[in-house]
Write a structure and sequence with these properties.
With 236 residues, this protein is mostly helical. 76% of the residues lie in helices and 0% in strands. It has helices at residues 13-22, 24-33, 38-74, 79-100, 102-123, 130-140, 142-158, 179-185, 189-206, 210-235. 25% of the residues are buried.
Length: 236
């Protein structure tokens, strides 16, 4: 049941916030009429900032351990030399990590909105504008806030940032550097939830069937998932 309490033609922001989770089509219809994006973006960025504050020290320790091993094995450094080489970077990372964390989030939302605009206007032959696509994906990204609320406590309790809520959880963590592991990691339950919402959002904004929207959106996601899995596996 859709949240009540609309105060404008486009519906209240609170109503849209609730409907993204319980009645997404109505949420996106409200976004189509009034494409507000500030509130969801602020919520997403704050959640990213808070999570980064807790996770960055742990992430830095894991990253430094990996780098230390590479310096010793590949460059022939002694443990002391490796520690000295990494010390400054670790200090800087612990400070700048939490502060810089929201920036990639904004970039991702902006780029995804642009890709969806291309998909809708060029591939589907429809008509919308960047503001609506940016607003739609900003609201959809609230699913990521829920993911953060679930994953951050798990990371802290397990003492590692490698927490999977995808099919990759069924593989040995030692396979993290393989293409299969990275591809299955893209099946994260929250990512798939967002994918479904994007399909609904595109159907609403472009006034097409959800099936047609899903064909394009899923194809786009598969290209992204395969490319990212290949690149990540190659660099790991």
């Amino acid at each position: 049941m859709a949240a009540q309490g609309s105060t404008t033609e486009g519906g209240s922001l609170l109503g849209t916030l609730v409907n993204v989770f319980v009645s997404p089509r109505e949420a996106y219809e409200a976004i189509d009429r009034r494409p507000h994006w500030v509130l969801p973006l602020v919520i997403v960025l704050l959640a990213t900032l808070v999570a980064a504050f807790f996770i960055t020290p742990m992430a830095m320790e894991e990253k430094m351990a990996e780098q230390r091993e590479k310096l010793i094995e590949q460059r022939g450094m002694t443990p002391e030399q490796a520690d000295q080489a990494l010390a400054m970077g670790e200090k800087i990372g612990r400070i700048t990590g939490p502060v810089m964390a929201p920036i990639p989030t904004v970039v991702v939302i902006a780029v995804v909105a642009l890709a969806l605009l291309f998909l809708g206007n060029v591939v589907f032959g429809g008509h919308s504008n960047y503001k609506k696509l940016f607003a739609m994906y900003s609201w959809t990204s609230l699913i990521g806030v829920l993911a953060t609320m679930v994953k951050t406590p798990l990371m802290l309790s397990r003492g590692t940032v490698d927490v999977q809520t995808s099919l990759a959880a069924f593989l040995d963590p030692a396979q993290k550097g393989t293409f299969l592991y990275q591809l299955l990691a893209r099946t994260d339950v929250f990512s798939l939830w967002k994918l479904v919402l994007v399909c609904i959002g595109m159907a609403v904004l472009y006034r097409i069937s959800t099936k047609r929207a899903a064909t394009g959106v899923v194809a786009l996601y598969l290209v992204y998932a395969i490319a990212r899995a290949a690149v990540t596996a190659a660099l790991t």
